Amino acid sequence: MQESRSPSELLLVRRGLDRAAHLRTDEAWLIERVSDARSRAMWISRGAVAVDENHELVTTALTSIADIAPEALTFLGVDEHDHAYFVIHLPEPSHPALEEGLAWKSLREVGHRLPDREGSMAVTAVALDNWRGRTRACPGCGGELAAASAGWSMRCSHESTDHFPRTDPAVIVLVRDEDDRALLGRHVNWEPGWVSTIAGFVEAGESAEAAVRREVLEETGVRVGDRPDHVAYLGSQPWPFPASLMLGYHAWVGTRDESASRITVDQTEIAEAHWFSRADLLAACEAATIRLPPRLSISRFLIEQWYGEDLPGDWLRG
């Protein structure tokens, strides 16, 4: 069995740029960097990233930002050499400045193959692009919005109020019973054999731990124990599909009472769920009767933390 891994190893939590948030309102500095030949930008359109797949390692198409309209840019940060990086938001996946032969790929498809810095940049870029695409009018008055703070806020022209990128907290949990079996389920929209951990959004006025207990009970009928140590936080992961922050947990039933671990799926979110011992799960993965989430996801991390080492096979949604 391998040693316990750190959540910092998750593919969407990798070390990236210095975000340099204090520079987002420094207009003189931004104007200088936009015209600086050393500044670079990645390209985003409809949640997809322009990438070069012609080498062993996939890389994003980092280009200069000459002749790019400022309103199409968002400042991402600076590297160790003080070079500035931006994202270019495109309504359509094409532009004369892009080289031939590039591909437009989602993070689900290529996130695990990007270098650390570019992977981190792409997560932020996709999240910001999704937010811009969904934020078309002031939620207070319906007025027109314009990008401000180097793309990190949208300002209402009527009320002069700023609106910021939304992040929705969600819990994702691997439930364990008294025999240390793991509870895995299949979402109603997934292919047969695809399984994962239980997840759901934190509701207004609710703690993350309460959300763990509620979501597991609602979706599977299983009751997580009441003691504080029956819910253990392991780490978090941004999940920009479109705007979530996944809070990862292990949780325990905490009793041998059969009614607490009895599975009754809701058939609305979860089509089926089962308890797996480590031997059961390995055998099912090797036989390909089930497939686990891709290694891009914190759910895979939660499962393999329980199992103790890597497991074979996964599924990938394009």
Itemize the secondary structure elements and their pairings.
Layout (H helix, E strand, L loop, with lengths): L26 H8 L5 E6 L2 E5 L6 E2 L12 E6 L5 E6 L13 E3 L1 H4 L5 H19 L10 E4 L4 E4 L5 E2 L4 E9 L5 E6 L10 E4 L6 H13 L10 E9 L4 E9 L5 H4 L8 E7 L1 H10 L10 H10 L11
Parallel strand pairs: 1-5, 10-14
Antiparallel strand pairs: 1-2, 2-3, 2-6, 4-5, 7-8, 8-9, 10-11, 10-12, 11-15, 13-14
Characterization of the model:
This protein has 318 residues and is an alpha+beta fold. Helix content is 21%, strand content 26%. The chain contains seven helices and 15 strands. The chain has helices at residues 27-34, 107-110, 116-134, 208-220, 258-261, 278-287, 298-307; strands at residues 40-45, 48-52, 59-60, 73-78, 84-89, 103-105, 145-148, 153-156, 162-163, 168-176, 182-187, 198-201, 231-239, 244-252, 270-276. The strands form three sheets. Strands 1, 2, 3, 4, 5 and 6 form a six-stranded mixed beta sheet that branches. Strands 10, 11, 12, 13, 14 and 15 form a six-stranded mixed beta sheet that branches. The protein has a three-stranded antiparallel beta sheet with strand order 7-8-9, with no helix packed on it. The longest helix has 19 residues, at 116-134. The radius of gyration is 22 Å and the shape is globular. It starts with 26 loop residues before the first helix and ends in an 11-residue tail after the last helix. The model has no long low-confidence stretch (mean pLDDT 93).
